Amino acid sequence: MRRRRLLSALPLLPLLWPPAPAAAQGAPPALSARDRADVQRVEAYLNALTTLRARFIQIAQNGATAQGTALIWRPGRMRFDYDPPEPLLLIANAGQFMHYDKELRQPSIVPVGSTPLGILLRERIVLSGDVTVAGVQREAGLLRVTVFRTASPAEGRITLVFADNPMELRQWLVVDGQGRTTRVTLSAIETGVRLERAVFDFNDPRFMAGPVDNN
Fold first, then answer.
1. Distance between CA atoms of 81 and 88, rounded to whole angstroms?
2. Residue 131 phi/psi, 5° resolution?
3. Which of 51, 57, 63, 131 is the most buried if burial means most Cβ atoms within 10 Å?
4. E strand or H helix at 168
5. End-to-end CA distance of the chain
6. Residue 53: which H helix or E strand, with range?
7. pLDDT score for 21
8. Signal sequence: where (predicted)?
9. What is the pLDDT of residue 151?
10. Alpha-carbon span 18 to 157, nearest angstrom
11. Which residues of the chain have pLDDT under 70?
């Protein structure tokens, strides 16, 4: 029962833009010259990122936790394997994002563009235009950049958290339109690693059952 309660608290919360409430949020404050410079640094870092492998721990608003292995292959590919007993698998590829329950063998597919982390998978990441920077914060060697979809500010926001020197993606937080927060923290981060294209294939049974090990 605890596993199912945990499961119900977790699916897609760190990844999907949440439904919009009735009232929109106010306009973000203007960015300073330093803020704009830091946003450009973040863009440069993300655009230079090709592959990433890391462990993650996810904490939902109600305190429920899960962990697993994350893979990113820019542009366009992402995979999150949740450790047992959670039977979740999340894969992004070819413009689609699949949420898969390994026990029920049930997939659910949405456009990558409907997910906050879809921003990271773009071929060219520009944090302006259809994406608005809501704020830039600096604290204890960390740089936080909060963004939302310009056309739908009431949907929610995602905050990307980076180690500042050297720059490295460490965490993201999704806040939905009702103010509920889901936090995902990365550890054991490796970048520039060799990944197999097939692990991002929705239909390859070899890679649908369990965690991926490319060592």
1. 7
2. -120, 135
3. 131
4. strand 167-176
5. 35
6. strand 51-59
7. 45
8. 1-22
9. 82
10. 9
11. 1-27, 204-215
Kindly give, in sequence order, each residue whose CB lies less than 8 Å from that of residue 149, ignoring residues fewer than 6 positions away: 17, 130, 131, 132, 155
List, in sequence order, every residue forming a beta bridge with 12; answer none if it has no partner: none
Q: Which value, in Å, is the radius of gyration of the alpha carbons in the chain?
A: 17
Identify the CATH homologous superfamily for domain 2-18+35-187.
Lipoprotein localisation LolA/LolB/LppX (2.50.20.10)
What does each C-alpha distance from 58 to 11, 49, 188 come to in angstroms?
11, 22, 15
Task: Give the pLDDT of residue 24.
Answer: 44
Quick check: 78 and 72 in contact, CB under 8 A?
A: yes
In the structure encoding, which two tokens stand for residue 117, read together?
A: 């982390």
User: What pLDDT shows up at residue 39?
Assistant: 96
Q: What is the pLDDT of residue 183?
A: 92
Place of tokens 């390859």: 204
